Prior knowledge:
This protein has helices spanning 11-23, 39-51, 79-88, 99-102, 122-125, 129-144, 156-168, 198-203, 206-219, 224-237, and strands at residues 7-8, 28-33, 54-59, 93-95, 148-152, 174-178, 241-249, 264-272, 275-282. It is an alpha/beta fold. It has two domains: 7-178, HUPs (Rossmann fold, 3-Layer(aba) Sandwich), CATH 3.40.50.620; 191-282, Pantoate--beta-alanine Ligase, Chain: A,domain 2 (2-Layer Sandwich), CATH 3.30.1300.10. Strands 1-4-3-2-5-6 form a six-stranded parallel β-sheet, sandwiched between helices. A three-stranded antiparallel β-sheet has the order 7-8-9, covered by helices on one side. The longest helix is centred in the middle third of the chain and has 16 residues, at 129-144. The chain starts with 6 loop residues before the first strand and ends with a strand. The model has no long low-confidence stretch (mean pLDDT 96).
Amino acid sequence: MTRRPPVARSLAALRRSLDTLRSRRATVALVPTMGALHAGHISLVRLARRRASRVIVSIFVNPKQFAPHEDFGSYPRTMDADLAKLAAEKVDLVWAPTAEAMYPDGFSTAIAPGGPALAGLEDRFRPHFFGGVATVVGKLLLQCRPDVAVFGEKDYQQLKVVTRMARDLDLGVKVIGAPVRRERDGLAMSSRNVYLSADERRSAPVLYRTLKDCAARLRGGEAVAATLEDGRRAVVEAGFALDYLEARHAESLAPLASLGDGPARLLVAAKIGHTRLIDNLKV
């Protein structure tokens, strides 16, 4: 039976474990997660292993990035299964703090990111979100002191926010983006996919098919505005409530009028039933 990785739940335990890792002159990679691990998360762990000699995975469902009407209470929590998966990957340490350890009584400091956090994408629909993400990720990076931190490209705007924060605050960590992992029908892997009904799951790959179609049309020289309008219509006709389908500069996330304005990324967010899905694709 594979031995489960040690789990630190307090800052004191984390620091003792880090001191042991660092005493061996190890390089350390951190993979921040909220648990409910799937194959997409495991791909991040494997990339982290290629970039460092020791791998830490954090598991913390961060209350500060959920609005009152969102799914914090029902967000899937599968710690035993998560630890079994991480054991199979020979992860060196799991940092699974309690809410009290992360946000003790009197906690009153927050990071307010700008730049890509104010691009008018996720921030337009979830204005609380990136402040909560930046604060918890900032804390995780300071707590774990990794050389490298690995984030998935599925949450593309989040990746850009974290990258900018680490650079602006001189946190001394290299942020690496890992490609989106998909199901066989193209649906981006997500912990929230378990919320989908059977009918919703059959419709969900429309998001990826629409992104692929839009990307092909844009590469073929068609106009951005008309292509996006057709894509938005396809998503709505498939039964989604669309939040956005946009073409943005891949680094700044500024709107693009044409592909000549810089490297392009298509980003989409839409709700089907009670489940909100996001996805993106390089053009």
